[in-house]
């Protein structure tokens, strides 16, 4: 299986150019049959890679891809790093092995066959197109210590992306990252543990890097990716910077809680001071967003004064 994926990666590298590459040329370059090339191309398409195929010209990627350099990644990260070409879910992998992990250990995959977002939504995970990453963290004081943590992760994400000169970023409460008012990245935090005892925490992050039209059509909301950014980082650079920033921020969060991040949140909150509608189940609440409190609850100024809301099926929409 490792050898098969290595061959597919070699094909992707050859196709990542401005020019079409013929199947015959690929077969000669890689030392395999023309049929083998055709089979690899078909498999890559099944994994969500959008490849142009023109008779008489050959093949070319519809969108440029950035694959992880495993050696470079592992040399840049002090904690353990698990890297896979394909896996059902990076979050599920870390949760399964949580007893063996230390804070800061990460799992990264090029493809997730069962990637998940918040509220059970499917996270579209075509091979190589985006960053799919999960990080483990241990909270010795239990689940209560995790209150507001997903908002910290959102702040970490924005800080990392800003470090690569990516502009137009903001956060939609509680932890969706937006670029130019369209969703760029999502966060899924999952836990194993009970109140009052040690808690195993897994933070899953998906960042859209290069979305093809065919994959984008599967998403039921406006989306953005990093492909048009003037200073697009490599996936390896982005993953490394993200792990370092998360480790730094979660260490601070463990010591000081969410209060240490309130100022950073205010800087990136796209609804701060805006009229909004807060949907809580079948209940709709109108108000003006007043940021968050130290528990991560969203604060709304309503006819009743300043009210705090958290948890459950809450979604936020601009009143305009």
Automatic annotation (TrEMBL):
* An example Gene Ontology molecular-function term: biotin--[biotin carboxyl-carrier protein] ligase activity
Q: What EC number(s) does this enzyme carry?
A: 6.3.4.15
Q: Which domain of life is it from?
A: Bacteria
PROSITE patterns (alphabetical): BPL_LPL_CATALYTIC
Residue ranges annotated as transmembrane are none
Per UniProt, biotin binds at 89-91, 112, 116-118, 183
Gene3D superfamilies (alphabetical): 2.30.30.100, Bira Bifunctional Protein, Domain 2, Winged helix-like DNA-binding domain superfamily/Winged helix DNA-binding domain
Extract the InterPro entries matched here. aa-tRNA-synth_II/BPL/LPL, Bifunct_BirA, Biotin_CoA_COase_ligase, BPL_C, BPL_LPL_catalytic, HTH_11, Transcriptional_repressor_C, WH-like_DNA-bd_sf
Question: Where the record puts its DNA-binding region(s)?
Answer: 23-42
Ranges for domain BPL/LPL catalytic:
74-254
Concerning Pfam families, the annotation shows:
BPL_C, BPL_LplA_LipB, HTH_11
What do the Gene Ontology cellular component annotations say?
cytoplasm
Reaction it catalyzes:
biotin + L-lysyl-[protein] + ATP = N(6)-biotinyl-L-lysyl-[protein] + AMP + diphosphate + H(+)
Alphabetical GO biological process terms: regulation of DNA-templated transcription
Its keywords, alphabetically, are: ATP-binding, Biotin, DNA-binding, Ligase, Nucleotide-binding, Repressor, Transcription, Transcription regulation
Q: What NCBIfam families does the database record attribute to this sequence? A: birA_ligase, PRK11886.1-2, PRK11886.1-5
**Briefly, what is this protein's role?**
Acts both as a biotin--[acetyl-CoA-carboxylase] ligase and a biotin-operon repressor. In the presence of ATP, BirA activates biotin to form the BirA-biotinyl-5'-adenylate (BirA-bio-5'-AMP or holoBirA) complex. HoloBirA can either transfer the biotinyl moiety to the biotin carboxyl carrier protein (BCCP) subunit of acetyl-CoA carboxylase, or bind to the biotin operator site and inhibit transcription of the operon.
By sequence similarity, the record places it as follows:
Belongs to the biotin--protein ligase family.
Q: What is this protein called?
A: Bifunctional ligase/repressor BirA
Q: Which gene encodes it?
A: birA
């Amino acid at each position: 299986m490792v050898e098969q994926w290595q061959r597919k990666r070699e094909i992707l590298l050859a196709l990542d150019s401005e020019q079409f590459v013929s199947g015959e040329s690929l077969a000669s370059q890689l030392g395999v049959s023309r049929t083998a090339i055709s089979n690899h191309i078909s498999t890559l398409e099944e994994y969500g890679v959008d490849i142009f195929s023109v008779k008489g010209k050959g093949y070319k990627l519809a969108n440029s891809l950035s694959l992880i350099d495993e050696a470079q990644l592992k040399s840049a990260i002090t904690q353990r790093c698990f890297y896979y070409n394909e896996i059902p879910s990076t979050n599920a992998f870390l949760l399964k092995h949580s007893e063996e992990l230390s804070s800061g250990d990460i799992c990264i995959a090029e493809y997730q066959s069962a990637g998940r977002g918040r509220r059970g939504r499917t996270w579209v995970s075509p091979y190589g197109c985006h960053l799919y990453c999960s990080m483990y963290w241990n909270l010795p004081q239990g689940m209560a210590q995790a209150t507001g943590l997903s908002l910290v992760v959102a702040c970490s994400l924005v800080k990392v992306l800003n470090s690569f000169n990516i502009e137009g970023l903001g956060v939609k409460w509680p932890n969706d990252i937006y670029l130019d008012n369209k969703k760029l990245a999502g966060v899924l935090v999952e836990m194993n543990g009970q109140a009052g005892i040690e808690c195993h925490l897994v933070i899953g992050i998906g960042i859209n890097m290069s979305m093809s039209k065919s994959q984008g059509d599967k998403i039921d909301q406006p989306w953005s990716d990093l492909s048009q950014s003037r200073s697009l980082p490599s996936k390896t650079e982005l993953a490394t910077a993200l792990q370092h920033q998360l480790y730094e921020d979660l260490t601070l969060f463990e010591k000081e809680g969410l209060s240490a991040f309130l100022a950073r949140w205010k800087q990136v909150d796209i609804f701060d001071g805006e009229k909004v509608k807060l949907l809580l189940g079948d209940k709709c609440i109108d108000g003006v967003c007043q940021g968050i409190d130290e528990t991560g609850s969203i604060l709304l100024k309503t006819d009743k004064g300043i009210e705090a809301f958290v948890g459950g099926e809450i979604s936020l929409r601009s009143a305009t």
